[in-house]
Amino acid sequence: MVVDDDPTTATVVKAVLTIHGFDVITASSGRECLDKVKDIKPDLILLDIMMPSMDGWETLRKLKEDKITDTLSVAMLTVKEDIGEAPELRDVVSDYITKPFSKADLIERVKKLMA
C-alpha cells in the first residue's frame, strides 16, 4: 500500500512497483489508509510523513495501537532528511525511503522489505 497525499508520487510509486510484479493499492490520506488497511491487510505500507489532517506519524501510531494492524510492516516515505518527530515510533519503522528516490533504489528496498 502506498499512502501519499501527492497523487503524482502515489501514481509513480504504484506504476514502478506494478511493473515489477507487486500488487499495489493507494490511499491519499492517513484516514483512508486506516479505513482500507483492515480489509486489505497489505504486506507493506509505504507511508508519507507530511500529510494534512493526519500525518504519517499519527497514522503509524494508530496502526500500531490496533491489534489487527500492529504487526504490519511500514516504511516511511519522506522528503525529510531529518525525520525528527515521534522518536518512540522510530523503532517500529522498517525503513525510511527519502524522496526523491531512484526507481532502482525503490525496487531494491521494497524487495528487501518483502523478503
Keywords:
single chain, alpha/beta, Rossmann fold, 115 residues, 5-stranded parallel beta sheet
Short description:
The protein is an alpha/beta fold and 115 residues long.
Polypeptide structure, described:
It is built from four helices and five strands; from the N terminus they run E-H-E-H-E-H-E-E-H. It has one domain (2-114): Response regulator (Rossmann fold). With 115 residues, the protein is of the alpha/beta class. The mean pLDDT is 90. The two termini are 16 Å apart. The chain is globular, with a radius of gyration of 13 Å. A five-stranded parallel beta sheet has the order 2-1-3-4-5, sandwiched between helices.
Main CATH class: Alpha Beta
**Strand segment count:** 5
* Alpha plus pi helix count: 4
Q: What is the share of helical residues?
A: 40-55%
Structural class, by secondary structure, is: alpha/beta
- Enter the CATH topology name: Rossmann fold
Average pLDDT value?
90
Outline type? globular
Beta-strand content: 15-25%
Radius of gyration: 13 Å
- Topology as a string of helices (H) and strands (E): EHEHEHEEH
Counting copies of identical and different chains, the oligomeric state is: single chain
Number of domains: 1
Order of strands side by side in the largest beta sheet?
Answer: 2-1-3-4-5
